[in-house]
Amino acid sequence: MSEAEVVPLLEPREGIPPVCESARALAAAVERLAGGEGPVAVDAERASGYRYGQRAYLVQLRRRGAGTVLVDPVPCSDLCELNNALAGTEMILHAATQDLPCLSELGLVPGRLFDTELAGRLLGYPRVGLGTMVETVLGFTLEKGHSAADWSTRPLPADWLRYAALDVELLVELRDALRTELDEAGKLAWAEEEFAAILSAPPKEPRQDPWRRTSGIHRLRTRRGLAVVREMWTTRDRIARERDLSPGRVLPDAAIVEAALQLPRTPDDLAALPAFRGRNPRRHAAAWFRAVQKGRTLPDAALPEHSLPGEGPPPAHRWAERDPAAAERLTATRAVVAALADEHTMPTENLLQPDAVRRLAWSPPESISEESVGLVLTALGARTWQVTLTAKPLAKAMVRLATKSES
């Protein structure tokens, strides 16, 4: 589409709708949406980087015949009636896995889903952000200036509400266009299977030792330093939860790593570190020092290991040394998946998850065949369409390698 054909989308068609902030307003909105027709566009705004957790601070919905509805989920925290009114209705989200958890907390759980971002990936669009997709497919530009705003702000400014309403303004039309493209490309059944898999996926298990994701932790070489990181991360998480602040606003990761590297012995030593000179670090200085002291004085037996026991295959860069045959299988299977993804115009990770490819290459079935490879892929979470496309060529590639090594 040429630049001249792109039209800026500046205002919602019906103007900025009032925000539902009471049970009465929400009930009226539920009635309006229930009386509409077709799928419902849904979006949520969070306060990532500002507040603790990933709760929603605004929910936007749009349906033909009903217009756009904005709901403040702080006073209207129970959307079960809305969920009941829309039971069986397809809900359209962009990058659904980001918003589904916070919507579920409110009681809004789609029974049917269309994910416009995932549809774009399956169709081979090189960039699948909402603004880019709306521009590429529909010819409108969306203003994205408030995507990283603090949506816990009250009252919400009018220009933020305009931006939020515009995020669902064309989502139904985008879904319609992408659904047609998927159908014409023979990929609609694949997409529907992917959408169903998203909805049926179990909740994510809490990450083991989440403190190990502290940015910069790779700089630490001692278990004692890791212990300090663990104690400071745990302290920060408690304070952040109590104050309802993003942990990074309470104390940045860089400060935790700096303290773990320097192991200050007095409160003054800790306060003298550059990362602890700001107002927020000083506010809880005593708590940070207690955490450092606890990490410094733990008995050796209580110190964390350098890394968690491995689950699954080792890192791929070590395969050539540990199992050369597995390394060859990985190279061959990756090449197969890359070629198939190119043939079907989609990213390799959407054709088959890289982890499934690694696990298959590391631990192939004893007797390699299309059926046995398909069973392994299915057990690893691959969908039927993915198994249908990949099991046979993957089996052939591994059989060729096995035959070659035996000759």
Give the proportion of residues in helices.
40-55%
- Secondary-structure content class: alpha/beta
Uncertain regions spanning at least 5 consecutive residues: none
CATH fold-level name of the largest domain: Nucleotidyltransferase, domain 5
Order of helices and strands: EEHEEEHEHEHHEHHHHHHHHHHHHHHH
Large-scale geometry: flat
What's the assembly state of these chains? single chain
CATH superfamily of the largest domain: Ribonuclease H-like superfamily/Ribonuclease H
What would CATH call the architecture of the largest domain?
Answer: 2-Layer Sandwich
Can you summarize the main beta sheet?
Answer: 6 strands, mixed
Q: Can you walk me through this structure?
A:
With 407 residues, the protein is of the alpha/beta class. It folds into 3 domains: 3-200, Ribonuclease H-like superfamily/Ribonuclease H (Nucleotidyltransferase, domain 5, 2-Layer Sandwich); 210-302, Orthogonal Bundle (DNA polymerase, domain 1); 316-406, DNA polymerase, domain 1 (Orthogonal Bundle), CATH 1.10.150.80. It has 20 helices and 8 strands. The chain is flat, with a radius of gyration of 26 Å. The model has no long low-confidence stretch (mean pLDDT 95). It comes from Actinoallomurus iriomotensis. This is 3'-5' exonuclease. GO terms for molecular function: 3'-5' exonuclease activity; nucleic acid binding; nucleotide binding. One of its GO terms (biological process) is nucleobase-containing compound metabolic process.
